Fold this protein.
Amino acid sequence: MKDKILKILRDSDDYVSGEKISDQLGISRAAVWKHIRSLRADGCEIISATNRGYLLKHADLITTEAISDGLNTEFIGRNIFYFAETDSTNNRAKAEHDAPDGSLFIAETQNGGKGRRGRAWTSPKGTGIFMSLLLKPDIPPEEISRITLIAGLAVCRAVGNGAMIKWPNDVVIGSKKICGILTELAAEDDMISYVVCGIGVNVNTEKFDDELAERATSLLIETGRKQKRAEIVRKILEEFEVLYKEFLQNRLDNILPEYEKRCVTVGREVSVVYRNKSVSGKAIGVTADGALIVDTPDDKITVNSGEVSVRGIYGYI
Ligand code: BTN
């Protein structure tokens, strides 16, 4: 019913009265009001005026229908769990880990969004993408970081606008972050039971608070245009599926050249925490396992993503 109301509003350039909607759909005015409220909670900007009715100003929905419509994948995002609000889509995916491989968990807002290293991930309603993929790959647990790597590449391809990767998996435009990825896994007897790959993208954020503004940006800030989140989600799912299938077949062999090209860290002076010590050097490449190769004054070292922190010595990247 909600979709039918949305269609009526979409098809009209002017206000549509509650009475007209209720007559057309054979439901009560109270029911119309209830659905309008729910559409607003889903992210539709619907204004109302006395004696005139409702007018749809902007619909940027990421509901199941909005994402599925035109989605070109085989199994990634084919099964969708949508939440108007939840704690964390990663938590939801873990709770539903019996759902099919490739299931997508997506929320309009998270009240307990999680970032890496125990940090919180701010998840304002209606402006970002907060999504998690439930995956059931047949790979050993130590290869899980490579899934994060390909998720970063998928986002990079999907958002365009010169997006690059700050190794291992932050997506940046210029020197600021637009996307973070948090991958979690459940393993038993050294075999992966399931992986949850959580992706957060700053899409239509107009402004960040002072603390974040220095190192965070959004697609709106970068392009000056509001973006349709469902379109971006679809592109991420499609790019992810292509890369993920390639990864399952050939690991990173054919993916690495593009990753290195898009990796802003390669060629820069970085400081890494290596064997509990902070060392500086020039990042010169990425290994077939996805580790960063750093040329330090003493030696060439390879650092794995894990909990290692990498900082450009001149700033965030
Ligand atoms: C980071 O850069 O610190 C990782 C941020 C990951 C955020 C996403 S938003 C969707 C998913 N749910 C979460 O609670 N976290 C990830």
